[in-house]
Amino acid sequence: MSAESEIKKITVPDILDLKKKGQKITALTAYDYLMAEMLDQAGIDIILVGDSLGMVIAGHPNTLPVSMDQMIYHTGIVSRAVKRALLVGDMPFLSYQASLEQGIENAGRFLKEARAEAVKIEGGEVMIPLIEKLIQIGIPVMGHLGLLPQSIHKYGSYKLQGKEPAVARQLKDDAKRLQEVGVFSIVLEKIPADLAAEITRSVSVPTIGIGAGPHCDGQILVSHDMLGIYDRFKPRFVRRYANLAQQMREAFQKYLQDVRSGKFPSDEESFK
Ligand code: KIV
């Protein structure tokens, strides 16, 4: 038996089991082959090809311009590297809001063309009919509540959600509805830790927090944020595990100096 065939693939039921066993779920984003391979080999549970790629890869100010074709392209790349983690594709803005048919076709593309195993959809009550339909036809869904980056123009800024009692109540109701229709997990983004804890206790499906405190069943970050590659700003909820942007800038400067001074290439780096 080869080493590859011994790898235990993580499935949607495995993610649900992790909550039952009280084991924290680990999730990060990836958009390219090498990073996805490193994450997978590190033993991550979930890899999300997030529409955050619009900001950290494509340089847009927000996630709104990201297209389905771009998501399919990056998800396909990531899927070639992933042997173990559950692979989730993020439905981009206006790929699912126009109609049930549009949402079903685009969600299906993630599984059919890019070998994702689930999709993520931003939104609560208003998205229930689509999410219910997708799950009925065999497309697992990760919900996403709290700060919804695709609604940035409604909020005006990426501010904390769920401070007002009415919004907190709506979030709790939305989480229950998502559970009822069968999502396998719910991302909770930028909400108070106590509210996230309450939601986490109230649903049987795992909550995956980003800026939602320590009581969620799992945590997710944008890899480029936690690696310090994207260093334009650091949200308070991001912990930097590396400072790669600085190391890369230093490496580029060193290369320029070495080429200009004739130190690169050396004899060992040249052929006779
Ligand atoms: O697009 C993304 O990367 C996300 C995560 C931050 C949850 O939605």
Indicate the radius of gyration in whole angstroms.
20 Å
Task: Please tally the β strands and state the result.
Answer: 8
Please indicate the count of domains: 2
**CATH architecture of the largest domain, please?**
Alpha-Beta Barrel
Hetero groups: 3-methyl-2-oxobutanoic acid
What is the terminal-to-terminal distance?
44 Å
CATH topology of the largest domain: TIM Barrel
Low-confidence stretches: none
Oligomeric state: single chain
Query: What percentage of the residues does DSSP assign to strands (E)?
Result: 5-15%
CATH homology group of the largest domain: Phosphoenolpyruvate-binding domains
Give me the strand/helix succession. Answer: HEHEHHEHEHEHHEHEEHH
In short:
The chain has 272 residues and is α/β, with parallel strands linked by helices. Helices cover 42% and strands 14% of the residues. Strands 1-2-3-4-5-6-7-8 form an 8-stranded parallel beta barrel, surrounded by 7 helices.
Question: What does this 3D model show about the protein?
Answer:
The protein has 272 residues and is of the alpha/beta class. The protein folds into 2 domains: 4-241, Phosphoenolpyruvate-binding domains (TIM Barrel, Alpha-Beta Barrel); 244-272, no CATH class. It is 42% helix and 14% strand. The chain is built from 11 helices and 8 strands. The protein has an 8-stranded parallel β-barrel, surrounded by 7 helices. Strand 1 (25-29), helix 2 (33-42) and strand 2 form a beta-alpha-beta unit. The chain is globular. Bound molecules: 3-methyl-2-oxobutanoic acid. 3-methyl-2-oxobutanoic acid binds next to loops. The site of 3-methyl-2-oxobutanoic acid has 10 residues, from loops.
